[in-house]
Amino acid sequence: MLGDLSRAERIYLACGYTDLRQSIDGLAATVPQRFHLDPFSNSLFLFCGRRCDRIKALFWEGDGFVLLYKRLEAGRFQWPREESEVKHITTQQFRWLLEGLNIEQPKAHKPVQGIQLI
User: Pfam families, per this entry (predicted)?
Assistant: First the structure.
């Protein structure tokens, strides 16, 4: 299904600024060049421009790329700006990002590993 992002196994956020004039080919080439990751993996790659009011998402569906574009009419995305770094985020952090929140929520419950009973 076109743009079914729930199938993505991993979500990567490209920190810093990305030139959003790039299309599918430019963004797909950025993934291995800057981050040493495979754009054809079952991963969603997120990019943000300088104004922080627009993002692009790149996702390989098995037979072609899907490029999604979102522009906020009011407000800005809380985007990490450490240059040339890629950050793996959870689906919850992705939802927070799209809701205009910071992906690091200090009051959120952290995942806990189960303890092993003897």
Answer: TnpB_IS66
